[in-house]
Amino acid sequence: MPTPTPLPAAAPAAARPAAYEDLPLFALDTDGPTATTATVPTPTHEDLFALDGPELVALLDSLTTAQRDQLAGPWPARWLYPPQPGDPPRGVNLCAGCGGGCAGPRLILGVQADMVCVEWNKNAAATSTAAGCTVIQRDIKTLDPRHPTLRFTRRVTCTMPCIDWTRAGRGLGRRQENLDILLDAIDEAGAHLGNVWVDGSEMCDHDDPDDCEAHCYDHMIEPSGITITELWSLVDDMSADTAGLMLAPVIWILGLRSIGAPIETVVIEQSSALPEDVQEYIQTELWTAGCKSVHWQDLDAADFGSASNRNRAIMSAHWYRHPGPVAIPRIRTNAALALGWPPDTRVNTRGQRKTSGGNAFSLNRTIPAVTGKIRGWYCQETGRRFTIPEVCALVGLPADFPVTGSRTSQCQQLGDIFSPLVAAAVWGTLLGLPWLDMLRTYLAQIYPTVHARADPAAILFNPDRTHTTPAVTGADIARLFATGDYPRFRIQINQPATP
What we know:
By secondary structure, this protein is an alpha/beta fold. It is built from 18 helices and 10 strands. It has helices at residues 18-22, 45-49, 53-61, 65-72, 100-109, 122-130, 176-192, 228-232, 241-244, 248-258, 276-289, 335-339, 388-394, 407-415, 420-431, 435-446, 448-451, 474-483; strands spanning 90-94, 114-118, 134-136, 153-158, 265-271, 293-300, 311-318, 346-348, 360-362, 378-379. The strands form 2 sheets. The chain has a 7-stranded mixed sheet with strand order 3-2-1-4-5-7-6, with helices on both faces. The longest helix has 17 residues, at 176-192.
């Protein structure tokens, strides 16, 4: 990776971003820093970075609540403190949408995390807040990952908007001139954030971030001191605004690493049309930074039990282990059965318009991907439209998920969601959890008419236990063999003892 090319008016090199010295109460806010009204001295962000452990705690305890809130803003003041043993790991979820990426681990895996979501859309932020997330309604471009509240972050999720990579966005991001700008920006941002190897250095080989010491970060060059605004200016010339947001993973992951954040796991969710060049450049930055395992996969929510398709490019990375790629269980859900609609229902998506793709599809299958336009889809025979609880079910959420806003906004949020089913599989793989069993239990809860009774094709033979179930009939076994799934499964049925 090349040494960074100086940018116009770049900030002078410093151990910490110059903004922290210029603005002691720095919190990149669209309204600007707020002056403190406290009568006691307030430390600077640089003061906080200079302390750790009991000394940091003592300093923070000496401050007023207002001072701590102002120092932390817009992040939670509790994040100024070092985590205690037993505390859930801290994480950030960027461009979080309505919270599907958090709902999967929470609802399906029961994973506890101290996660803060960042989302600029008011209604999507309100939805994820109502669902139990801590949310900052803000444009991620106005936030700096080198904030002292973020120095203990372990998990990062990035789900940037994807419109510019798709046909709906005319593929603007894939135009060569835009792609060239983005790839150069990824390379340049990585170098400015110090992600360049020092000749003769050695990579950290610890298996746990708690074992890392200061020397584990010494194999990289010093960051240039560039400001967050200057980093984002690297993609200013792109004519595809949302495509430029793919710079966010590099800025945030490397920015967090530059302040010593013990990043363990990273998940990126993006359109399956994301060019391989972009995937490879991000992967290279993580490998260069010392990440041990990075995998990109195309994963379709329909293979994880969703009643609708949603094919996405997913990156899963673990800094200290090699969990491998996500296994694809290929669990299918019939949408008509899941919703309790007649199996012969045909759904009209385009009214009376004549299109090459047709105006209607059968509901008696896993249906095409849900988009914001589902607000206007209707039953061709009766004119009945989908309710919001039904749209939730189609994308793998509980029917009572608290989607907020107008019907148009609700449908758009659900159409843009990071599938909670896929999120559970990805995080379950990264964390080494038995996520498939948990996923099947969840599917039985939200789609009881489809998955409540054990499907013989879902009974995996495990040497440690024998699956015995009276629900498996001769007809089930015949169907199993007819589908061609039998080589992958072994079923044991109890037979009456011979007299």
